[in-house]
From TrEMBL:
Family to which the UniProt record says this protein belongs: Belongs to the bacterial solute-binding protein 2 family.
Organism: Micromonospora vulcania
Keyword Signal in annotation: yes
UniProt keyword annotations, A-Z: Signal
Protein name (database record): ABC transporter substrate-binding protein
Alphabetical list of Pfam families matching this protein: Peripla_BP_4
Range of residues in the leader sequence: 1-28
Length: 333
């Protein structure tokens, strides 16, 4: 904890004067080896509310945040919301109570954040959005967004299909495993993919349902798709984990993934890249979870009152089967 945040100026001046007096008396006693005032441990405290632990991507994202906080000398208060918005709101309120210096979080869904974000703003605690965004009209409720362009990930997936689908012999039936209902990645990947495939009327989404970004969800929904649709040519899964779960259902139905059903996913975590290299997936649009270092740099800047860009997008690429074989040995996550 670095500083007690007082909402009013006079109290802040009094607190500052008390701190100055305390520091000067301490150094007068010669304990300069403490390297500063006894009242200030010098560490920035960051409160982070994580979505949960639903996927390989999320695990890699959590590791990146924890490791980067340690490397940056930032005291991290970390909360896992188990994919529940009410848990994230509770965690943010706890961080406010604890008077952390900065709050960061990955909002599980886009809506319903204005009230708690206003509480953080009124408490004078800056907020950073990482990974997923919110639909708040009031952009002053957070300092910046750090993460991916999900619409682009969906669009790149659709553009690959446009370039590689065999649509000369009639309609190509697509089933879509959506991410968590109401989440920015699910909304935006769906939008980008649909916009891209509109270029070819033979590409038809015949079923689209949420698998909640989990392997179990992907398997369960894919089983339903296979029962309800006699002809499935393509699966577009909003993340690798749902695609990996769907592999089990496809194989159990006696079909060959990557051949009978073309599979396109997003993320490019190690297990997904292995499936791609093995020919079970056909294309992956990367979504980087390695946001930790940039987040810690941003936390220090907003805490120091420095201006930061409103939106910072991560560098990402895409992978074919051949590119996955080449990239796998060096994958960090
Ligand atoms: C995307 C992230 C998504 C991943 C999923 O930035 O929010 O959530 O694509 C994860 O794997 O569950």
């Amino acid at each position: 904890m670095r500083k007690m945040r007082s909402p009013s100026a006079p109290w802040r001046a009094a607190a500052l004067l008390a701190t100055v007096l305390l520091v000067s008396s301490a150094t007068a006693c010669g304990n300069s080896d403490t390297g500063g005032s006894a009242a200030d441990d010098g560490k920035l405290t960051l409160g982070f509310s994580q979505v949960g632990a639903e996927s390989g991507w999320r695990t890699a994202n959590t590791i990146s945040i924890k490791d980067s906080a340690a490397a940056a000398g930032i005291e991290l208060k970390f909360d896992d919301a188990q994919q529940k918005q009410e848990n994230q709101i509770k965690a943010i309120r706890n961080f406010i109570q604890q008077k952390v210096d900065v709050i960061a979080f990955s909002p599980v869904v886009e809506s319903g954040w204005d009230t708690v974000l206003k509480e953080a703003k009124d408490a004078g605690i800056p907020v950073i959005l990482t990974d997923r965004s919110v639909d708040s009209a009031d952009k002053s409720l957070y300092k910046t967004f750090l993460g991916s362009d999900f619409v682009k990930e969906g669009r790149l997936s659709g553009e690959w299909l446009i370039a590689n689908a065999k649509t000369t012999s009639g309609p190509v039936n697509i089933v879509e495993l959506q991410g968590t209902t109401g989440s920015a990645p699910a909304n935006d990947r769906k939008k980008g993919f649909a916009e891209a495939i509109a270029a070819n009327p033979n590409l038809k989404i015949v079923a689209s349902q949420s698998g909640d970004f989990t392997r179990a969800g992907g398997k369960q929904v894919m089983e339903q798709f296979l029962k309800a649709n006699t002809k499935i040519d393509v699966l577009f899964a909003h993340n690798d984990d749902m695609g990996l779960g769907a592999l089990e259902a496809i194989t159990a139905a006696g079909k060959v993934p990557g051949k009978d059903i073309t599979i396109i996913t997003v993320d490019a975590v190690k297990d997904g890249m292995q499936a791609l290299a093995d020919g079970k997936f056909n294309f992956i649009a990367e979504c980087s979870p390695l946001l930790g270092p940039q987040l810690m740099d941003l936390a220090k800047k907003v805490d120091a009152g420095q201006e930061v860009p409103a939106r910072i997008e991560t560098e990402e690429t895409t992978f074919t089967q051949a590119q996955a074989k080449e990239a796998l040995p060096n994958r960090k996550y």
